């Protein structure tokens, strides 16, 4: 066992300080140390995207990042995207358009989709497919995921227009 | 999957990095995006007792476009390459290739330096850099040196980089003419079955220069001088294309894996190369 | 009052019952990251267990030294077979009547086999401990080919008496498991011998894996004070797991509580019992602390249940006009090192005898030989009812091959051989009685929807263009028409480990007119909490939104056999309707009492009982519910509850017609799915939105299997496809949009006429994708090529047909 490190993360707006071995992957910090169990482990080799979180504005697979690397950074998980009182349009749209089944990929999927809509508020179907290709879903065949993201994009754009 | 324990370092400058490398030799590895190294550590196929995180070392994340060359810091990510509009203007092949690497999350983390320095035959950037005749800047205890991309790769995971050196930047002469990066893969996130990088120039006599390299068809990237030469002076007609493909096929040495047997890979290499040349030529 | 009587449509809509695309109640928690999967469970003092696994596919174990591992800080115990033997737990029974090593007992039979179980305070220490367990192996000859296995002198299963019969009768060879037959051998052979036309083909349905996004795992917690064991896990059949754990551990069943929390997809992978479950239970008993075991992805792909691995040889005979006269099928089934298939006891090859498909084939014979090899055990039904995917693939390929033999259009060949509507219920040659169907209507609708004739004309033009050198892309039109057999099943012929395959529902109506219903099944993404409430809403007249559905806790749910083989709607869905009808029967009596009329003078109307002929006189179900708890009604017990255990009289037989249009790059082997049309008939449709979602998902899994997904071994028995780099799970980029359509032919014996749908798209999809690839090459002489049709194998087909320079 190597020396433990002092690590500070800001997770969903809350500062978290702890001591951890350098080999502690961010996904384990989130899930086991901080009880933030929305992000999941699906493949362990950075293919499936179930562990996707946002770190300093970038979509990242938290199974392939040591918490030590994230020291000092801001992390958003599905729990920080929206809750019962402030649902994100993507969260409503996934329910409305049946964009999920077993739900295991959903937190990573929505977290990535939220970032995708920041990168490109008006994506075409092909752009959504390409932009979501780091997230694997075994249940839905993606068709309703695409539909959900399109619907959320439309809603967010309409809200933005109304506000302007 | 849990990696073995290691000591973690996050030096603030290059001197700090080199000091750790000097102390621990091949027991130390530098970490950029980590998307090649960390999975290997998790599978316990790479043992790294001393891990040096490069993120706090300044000056490695810039893209500088000069009058003759582009300089790309080692910590520039694939997504940085994709998002840089000025770069896309002067060297569009970089964007075209980067978009074909892995997936959005991995491109946010994966760096140019990691991709070229790792020596993984499956990585896309090494072949691309050979096509572009890039130079790699290495820094070590004895200072800085430059190594041509075309001289850098010795075998799978074996490169001209010494254990105590760090790759800090890639410089590329401003590419000229038409370009194409063509890649066949089984799915997003896969390495290439075959990939080709082509830069090609045209004058009134036809093809005036051509540079061609391919990926994942040998234990190193393959820059084929003969393939480029086969196009120069031609109108890039069928005969020239055939000659270029034949030259390349002579230079590659693929092995069988889950993507298919050798005969298939050679055939597809020819098809992909031909398509890359045709597309590059149409843009020249 | 009049409004309330007249607004019947509104009242129906308010229930969100059958036929409504009700949004899923599960989604709130999943979209907010608040699902509760097994790896989310965290208990005080919880330990972690993980396996030392064999790097060899066949080896004798000379010694195991755990001393160094025990020195790792945090490692508390290392279990080996020697530790489990005194408890009689070093082997466990499989669902197929065989037994399987829990931890390697003297030898290993497949790569990745469990050798020792390291128990530690955290995952990190467990992982470090594994590295330090020293196992000395002596390599043995490896057999990865079942045909070679049946000829080999190498005995894989030294624990079995080579001459003794197995669970399914006599064995022909020490590496042989069973022979299973259906139909009439001699008459079939005779018809084929004298037939005008015979097509013969051998095909290999490759080994693949269900690979749900969540791997398998569990948390075992032995409460030594109270003598109670709680086991949370990824169980598709929690009640059966409880019984198995009781039988093998000796803990009385009432002292075991099995809980399936949210499950991140199953697809058959989570039906069986795995060594990890047994070791976690033992470790919890030994340490007195909760123990968690979670597979990583490599463990999952290499060791937990695979699917398929069927070598099938068929002969199909017909008249010159194309009327099929007989079908003969032989299967050599590779079951790996142990026979751990998940099939009903009497069906060691599952329902492979549905392989006459949707066709009126008068004579047929099927013979299946199960064989041991040095591969992982399993043989589960990956998104299908028991071996139905194999059966449908077989017949849908045989039809195509026969069409080639007859030089006939494959769509027309299907049409002239379909079982006719008026023939239902139809008794098939291999024994099953199909409940209902209208195949011609479905087929015609499908072919019209895609403009089949237009597609064939386009394809002919493409072939001409290809031959003229104008294109290097071929066009394939994939057809499939499938009939499934799902909803296992009638207790008279379906059991697993002696447990009849009924299912159950228990309903409690609360005083204020809401309800909870508990079932013996368990959702893994199918949306049971949404759809079962819809069935009930229509049956009992309370809004689906007022009904909670609960599954997966064996302490509270009635006994049932779980969710796989599309059995939830056909069996538990029927139990739900039947329990609802019991509620309604009592409600009728309460209503009659309240309305002061005779029981027979009231009738059910959507959400109430009304006095016949006087619609203004009624009691709503909400009112009746309250009355059940508040009135002393002569002759009636208080309360409003019911339970139903439903033993289905027959299986259900969903069917469908699929068409795929694909372009194929002859030079790279890259396929491009241009169009996919899927018509499904699953009988009564409970929730069209969920049906459509199931179809999209099943088709995508079919695409994966047909076009690249495989568990491949090298000659040494090493798994070559152990990570998601090589094991093909398509991303959004590789998947097309699907067009869905339907007809409705209710099941005559199911209480609401529903048949089940979750697996149809996979069963029908695999042959459809495969047929599209094969059809593209038909004009150039292709007859059959094996899946998976990945780039290089498609390229090889083109190459062998001389389509490259």
Automatic annotation (TrEMBL), chain A:
The keyword Cell membrane does not apply. Residues 5-81 form the 2Fe-2S ferredoxin-type domain. The keyword Membrane does not apply. Pfam families: Fer2, Fer2_2. GO terms for molecular function: 2 iron, 2 sulfur cluster binding; metal ion binding; oxidoreductase activity. It is an enzyme of class 1 (oxidoreductase). It comes from the Bacteria. Keywords: 2Fe-2S, Iron, Iron-sulfur, Metal-binding, Oxidoreductase. Its EC number is 1.2.99.2. This is Carbon monoxide dehydrogenase small chain. The lineage of its organism: Bacteria, Pseudomonadati, Pseudomonadota, Alphaproteobacteria, Rhodobacterales. The gene is coxS_1.
TrEMBL record, chain B:
It comes from the Bacteria. It is an enzyme of class 1 (oxidoreductase). This is Carbon monoxide dehydrogenase medium chain. SMART domains: CO_deh_flav_C (SM01092). The keyword rRNA-binding does not apply. InterPro entries: CO_DH_flav_C, CO_DH_flav_C_dom_sf, Diverse_Substr_Oxidored, FAD-bd_PCMH, FAD-bd_PCMH-like_sf, FAD-bd_PCMH_sub1, FAD-bd_PCMH_sub2, Mopterin_DH_FAD-bd. The gene is coxM. One of its GO terms (molecular function) is FAD binding. Its EC number is 1.2.99.2. Residues 1-177 form the FAD-binding PCMH-type domain. Keywords: FAD, Flavoprotein, Oxidoreductase.
UniProtKB/TrEMBL annotation, chain C:
It is an enzyme of class 1 (oxidoreductase). Gene3D superfamilies: Aldehyde oxidase/xanthine dehydrogenase, a/b hammerhead (3.90.1170.50), Aldehyde oxidase/xanthine dehydrogenase, molybdopterin binding domain (3.30.365.10). One of its GO terms (molecular function) is anaerobic carbon-monoxide dehydrogenase activity. It catalyses: CO + a quinone + H2O = a quinol + CO2. The keyword Oxidoreductase applies. Its cofactor is Cu(+); Mo-molybdopterin cytosine dinucleotide. SUPFAM superfamilies: CO dehydrogenase molybdoprotein N-domain-like, Molybdenum cofactor-binding domain. Its EC number is 1.2.5.3. It comes from the Bacteria. Residues 32-141 form the Aldehyde oxidase/xanthine dehydrogenase a/b hammerhead domain. It holds the Pfam family MoCoBD_2. Keywords: Copper, Metal-binding, Molybdenum, Oxidoreductase. InterPro entries: Ald_Oxase/Xan_DH_a/b (IPR000674), Ald_Oxase/Xan_DH_a/b_sf (IPR036856), Ald_Oxase/xanthine_DH-like (IPR016208), AldOxase/xan_DH_MoCoBD1 (IPR008274), AldOxase/xan_DH_MoCoBD2 (IPR046867), AldOxase/xan_DH_Mopterin-bd_sf (IPR037165), CO_Mo_DH_lsu (IPR012780). The keyword Oxidoreductase applies. Catalyzes the oxidation of carbon monoxide to carbon dioxide. Dimer of heterotrimers. Each heterotrimer consists of a large, a medium and a small subunit. This is Carbon monoxide dehydrogenase large chain. The gene is coxL.
